[in-house]
Amino acid sequence: MRSALAEARAAMESGDVPVGAVVLGPDGHVIATGRNERELTGDPTAHAEVIALRAAAERLRSWRLTGCTLVVTLEPCTMCAGAAVLARVDRIVYGAVDLKAGAVGSLWDVVRDRRLNHRPEVIAEILAEECGALLTEFFGRRRVR
Asked: Which of 7, 37, 49, 75 is labelled catalytic?
């Protein structure tokens, strides 16, 4: 999660919402990273998780990320939760809960939907306060403007 937090801080420096993600390989080592880049690139799909999953797939030369773990500072949205399911990651670890758009247990629970063919394990609220504080700081600065 500390690596994902570093990515989130870098996103904030470029003007994006501070969300960072890393993909851990089956051996537990970081194989890919990502940070929000929607403002930077103008791409509505440039969420930290999508960027990290794409990089991991490229590195492994396979869209199947079996054995991998997605670690992200904020609970994934529906798009990112769906991408994690489709990538077949074994687990999702996230920091702050997203009551407005979270799709891994708070608002929706895409990853545990029994109608889907893959359901990753979920580990929630790891370093949640630290992850949430970064978001609070970012949005607090924007309200002051």
From this structure: 49
**Does 68 count as an annotated binding residue?**
no
CATH number for the domain spanning 126: value is 3.40.140.10
> Does residue 125 fall inside a structural domain?
yes
On whether residue 132 sits in a domain, the answer given is yes
Tokens of 25: 């390989």
Could you tell me the residue range of the domain that residue 18 belongs to? 1-136
- Strand duo 69-74 + 20-24: pairing: antiparallel
**29 in a labelled binding site:** no
Instruction: Please report whether residue 142 resides in a domain.
Output: no
Q: Mean pLDDT in each 10-residue stretch from start to end of the chain (145 residues)?
A: 98 95 97 97 97 98 98 98 98 97 96 93 98 94 68
Amino acid, res. 71: V
Q: What's the number of domains the chain is made of? A: 1
Q: Which pLDDT score, from 0 to 100, does residue 142 have?
A: 73
- The answer as to whether 10 is a domain residue is yes
Active site residue 49: yes
Q: What is the pLDDT of residue 145?
A: 57
131 annotated as belonging to a binding site for a ligand: no
Residue 141 has what pLDDT? 82
How far is it, in rounded angstroms, from Cα 6 to Cα 50? 17
The two three-digit tokens of residue 54, written as one number: 């794409």
